Every structure is written in C-alpha cells, then in structure tokens.
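Re: beginner question about structure tokens

> Can someone show what the tokenized structure looks like for a real chain? I only ever see the sequence side.

Sure, here's an example I had lying around. Input first:
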Amino acid sequence: MTSTGFEDAKTAKVNGTTLAYREVGEGEPVVFVHGAISDLRTWEQQLGAVGRSYRAITYSRRFFRPNECSDPGGSDLSLLAVEDLVAFLREIGAAPAHLVGNSYGAYVSLVTAIRYPELVKTIVAEEPPVLRLFVSVPPRSTELLRLLVTRPRTAIGLVQFGAGTMAPAVKLIKRGEESKAVRVFTRGVLGKRAFDRLSQERWDQIHENLFEMKLLKRDAELFPPIDDDGVRGIRVPVLLVVGEQSPFHLRVLVDRLAELLPDMERVEIPDASHLMHEDNAAVVNEVILDFLGRHRDRPTSPPSR
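And the corresponding structure tokens:
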C-alpha cells in the first residue's frame, strides 16, 4: 500500500455522503465491511488474495477515514450503516454480493441479509456483536436478571463486558477523555494478549477512526434492530468465524447465532483474536476462499415483503 493507503481509492456518492473504496479483480463481488475501530485499510491482506478470483471490494463506512466525519445531528443512526451499504452495492454495480464483515461490520451484514435478501449471496461474519438478541443497548437491569436465569453463561459474559468495558469507555468519552476511552474499549474487545501486540501503525488507524465512538456522547443508538426470528429467516449460507483468543463475551454471542441460523458453518482461527483477518491473515484468507468457492453462482433470495 502507499503511505496512507487511500491514494488509489475511488469514491461513490450514496445517501448524501461520499464513501471511499478500493477494488481488485473481476467476477462475483465480495464486499468487505469493517468494524468500529477500522477503515478500509484493515482488509489490506484480503483484498489482493480474494481479488485473484473475485471482484474484491473494500470500503470505508460513513464517519471513517478518509470519508467526511460530520455529525448528523439528531438523525436516527441505527440503520444508517445498513442503508449506506445497500446504496453502495447498487451504486457501484456490486449487487448481489458476498459480504465479509468484522465485528460491527458483520452485524451490519446480517441485518442487510434480513432486510434486503436479494442483495446478498453469502456472509462471512467475524464475531458480530449481536447484543440486541438478548438485551437492549445499553441493557436494562430486568433484562439482565431474566437472562441470568435463562442463560447464565451468556449473562455473565455480557455483564463482565458491560461493566468492565462499555460503561467505563462511555463515561470517559462523555468526559472528553477519548484516548483513555479507546484503550479501555480496545482492550475489552481484543483481550489483553491481542491488545498488547497492536503495532503503532494499527494504533494510528484506531485513533483516526474514533468518530463513531464519539457519537456515544449523546447516547446515539448505533445498533440496528435484530431479533431471533429475523436471524432464523436468513436463507443465505453464513460462515461464523471466531478467534481462538477472542474474549468470552464475543464467543457466547456467536454461540447464539449458531443456534438460530438455518444454513451455518463455524470455524475457529488459531493464534487470533477479534481482528482475526489481521492476526492470522493466511488462515482467514484460506477459510474465506474455501467458503466462497463452495457457493459460487448461488442464486439469491427474492426481496423481502
């Protein structure tokens, strides 16, 4: 890549904003959707590898480098990432697409398949934070108590993450201590081992992409609605990918998706945490290409009614 990673990026105008993207190769579109502390650069090790057999596309979501980061004011943000992805796929002629998402990007990919099944061929989902399958965000105490009775293992994981990561990170954001907040958040999401091995280059990417976290100052709802019936209704093949070293709370969320999805496979990536496509790119690329290869030329579902 070049010095910043954006010099050869194209742009697409969608929903009143401009999104940067890169693409390599030809054939069935494979679109990579990044998470909350990343931008299109996080997929650098996938772009060329997948682009040898497919039209591989990485893009930066709204609010992420090098896109404009203007505050949308009182807008409803919960479905914005989904609607942007849909408009992006249509704008660049990449629909229907195979979607590969990490974290929040995997969550967005799942919701897109629920709401726009005709636009999605398959999904590779790296640890989507599907908290809303269990509780509100932030959760109410009654929800947690009910979950403690019905699914104690899950409840313990979510309480630990909420009390140890999200609550202190949001408090720091609201106090304007953004650098401290992102360290608390990143350590909670990656785990200590992966956190300690982050390079300075990766920290630079994290600090350049804090705008979505800053929206928490005004208690913005960033998670699209999702429920058990919606997940059960996803008819495309879904590959759930977990990191061997990922924190417990992320793994139990994937457990629930594995119970609900009708056409599901699951794989664990060795020597990797939540940013598994960076931690162990060779294995992740092999897994993605194997999965896509078994679902080439797959017909898509009809539009939802």
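Each token stands for a local structural state, so reading them left to right follows the chain. The first helix runs from residue 44 to 51.
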